[in-house]
Amino acid sequence: MNEVFLDTETTGLSFKEGHKVVEIACIETKDLIPTGKVFHKLINPKRSMPSEAFNVHGFSEEFLKDKDTFDIIADEFLNFVKDKKIIIHNAPFDLGFLDGELGLLKKEKMDRKLVIDSLEVARNKFPGTSNSLDALCKKFNIDLSRRTKHNALLDCELLREVYIHLLGAKEPKFDLTNNIEAQSLNKTKDYSNTIVKISEDEIKKHKDFLKSELRKNFY
C-alpha cells in the first residue's frame, strides 16, 4: 500500500466556527520514497481571510478569489488518496476540516483506519517535549530555511523527512541499478541446495591446516 503525506492550510482553527480550507497538498510515496505523484490545490474559501490566518500562510482573500472551490476539486482529491495510508501531523485538525467540507457535499468522510497521526507517534517517542513540525525538524537537523510561511506542500515534504526519523529508519534511496545488470546479478543467486558430504580424511587435513596456519598468526 502506498502512502500519502497530507497537509492543509485554513482560514482559522475550527470548521464548526465557519472556517474553511484554502490549501491542500498530498505527496504520494511508496515505502516512503516519493513516486512523483503530487496533489496540490489552492482553494477559494468564499469568505474573508482573518489577519491571524494570513500571517501564518500568506494567502489573501484577493489572491484566492479566482481559485477553484472545494466542491470542484473534491473528487480529484478523494481519488488521489483512495486506498492509501494517509500520514498527517495533528490529524484531528486536518480531518475536522476535510470531513466538514466533504460532509457539505454529501460525500463519505476520510477513512480513519488508513490515517496515521505522526504527532501521536512523536508524543509516544518524545513525551513531555514540543512535537510541532518545527520542533521535530530542529530535533532531527532538517533544513527549515524555506519555511518562512506555512505552506502545505512544503510541510508535506518536511513531514516525510520527520516521519522517517520518527520510525528510526534511514532515508530511503532510489534504486538506480540498471535493470539489465540487475537481472544478470539475480541469475547468480540461483544457489544450489545440494548437501556435500565431507570425508573424514578431508576433515583431518582441514584441522591440520588450521593448526599450522593459525599458529603463524600469533608470532
Task: Give a quick set of tags describing it.
2 domains; five-stranded mixed beta sheet; 5 strands; 219 residues; alpha/beta; disordered C terminus; Nucleotidyltransferase, domain 5
| Proportion of helical residues | 40-55%
| Radius of gyration over all CA atoms, rounded | 27 Å
Number of domain modules: 2
Instruction: Report the sheet with the most strands, covering strand number, pairing sense and barrel closure.
Output: 5 strands, mixed
CATH level-1 class of the largest domain = Alpha Beta
Number of helices: 9
Please state the average pLDDT score.
Answer: 86
List segments where confidence is low: pLDDT < 50 over at least 5 consecutive residues.
173-192, 213-219
Beta-strand percentage range: 15-25%
Multimeric state: single chain
Could you spell the SSE succession in H and E letters? EEEHHHEHEHHHHH
CATH superfamily of the largest domain: Ribonuclease H-like superfamily/Ribonuclease H
* CATH topology call of the largest domain: Nucleotidyltransferase, domain 5
Write down how many β-strands occur, each being a DSSP E stretch of 2 or more residues. 5
Distance between the termini: 58 Å
Global geometry: elongated
Strand order of the largest sheet: 3-2-1-4-5
Can you tell me the CATH architecture of the largest domain? 2-Layer Sandwich
Which structural class best describes the helix and strand composition? alpha/beta
